[in-house]
Design a protein that fits this description.
There is one protein chain. The chain contains 8 helices and 7 strands. The chain is an alpha/beta fold and 276 residues long. β1, α1 and β2 form a beta-alpha-beta unit. α1 crosses α7.
């Protein structure tokens, strides 16, 4: 896919991976619609990039869990730039807590942003791409969408959902001219662990405590990748029309271990069932 002169929409664009994607797309000669629910940060970053790339940046506050706001985002993008060829459904939140201790309202929030936000982006923007015979969708899932760990049950549920949605979309887009990429990052130096700063007030979630990234690196035994490096990987995948983007080498053996365990359990169940 040729990026020069095309238009990208990036959600969760005021910080982290979304901001890095916006910066990289502008460097590639694209126009960028930056969307985020965090208005102050969006205003600052949007103004900064607009000053460096006059006429190439539109910053729009958007809560992706609201389908009407996503439709409004498309209308604003079309009015400003005439169409969208690249959609990055990147907005995401996390509120780490055991699944069985998570209140329904928090389920609604995380599912609304992480999963429905991706679905609304797809159903809003992709029909125009199919009609044009050109486009690409990047859905930000997570390594947490490929195997599960303790204490992030809701987050895992949403990210597994994004992986499945992306795999289905890839199949559906065969022969349409529209490509699909599923981004599954491991630890990246972002504010995702401070997501409750943007949680709706009615949830009553506490203000997030800042956790130094080096502490997370030590706890997880990994390297926090700079968002700019993730953006580089995404651009390569879009240009080369690749589906998977995994940021860390450790992801593959973890997924293989999960799959092997699944195969072993299925085989054992079949043996037990066959002998009954």
């Amino acid at each position: 896919m040729e990026l020069q002169g095309k238009v990208a929409v990036v959600t969760g664009a005021a910080s982290g991976i979304g901001l890095a994607l916006s910066e990289r797309f502008l460097a590639e000669g694209m126009s960028v619609v930056m969307a985020d629910v965090e208005a102050p940060a969006l205003e600052v970053q949007g103004a900064r990039l607009a000053a460096a790339h006059p006429g190439k940046v539109l910053a729009e506050r958007c809560d992706v869990s609201d389908a009407a706001q996503v439709r409004g985002l498309k209308e604003a993008a079309n009015e400003a730039f005439g169409g969208v060829q690249l959609l990055c459904n990147n907005a995401g939140v996390a509120a780490g807590r055991a699944t069985w201790k998570t209140r329904p309202e928090v389920w609604d929030w995380e599912v609304g942003v992480n999963l429905l936000g991706v679905g609304y982006g797809v159903s809003t923007f992709v029909p125009d791409m199919v009609a044009a015979g050109e486009g690409h969708v990047v859905n930000t899932a997570s390594e947490a969408g490929l195997h599960a760990a303790f204490g992030l049950g809701v987050y895992h549920a949403t990210k597994y959902g994004v992986v499945g949605l992306s795999e289905a979309l890839r199949t559906e887009m065969t022969g349409t001219g529209v490509g699909v990429t599923c981004l599954c990052p491991e630890l990246v130096d972002t504010l995702v662990f401070e997501s409750t700063r943007n949680a709706p007030a009615h949830l009553g979630l506490p203000a997030p405590a800042h956790i130094p990234m080096e502490n997370l690196e030590a706890m997880m035994g990994t390297r926090a990748m700079p968002p700019a490096e993730v953006a580089d990987l995404v651009v390569e995948a879009v240009v080369e029309q690749r589906f998977w983007v995994l940021t860390h080498d450790a992801t593959v053996p973890r997924v293989q271990a999960r799959n092997h365990a699944l195969e072993d359990e299925i085989a054992a169940d079949n043996v037990a069932g066959g002998g009954a």
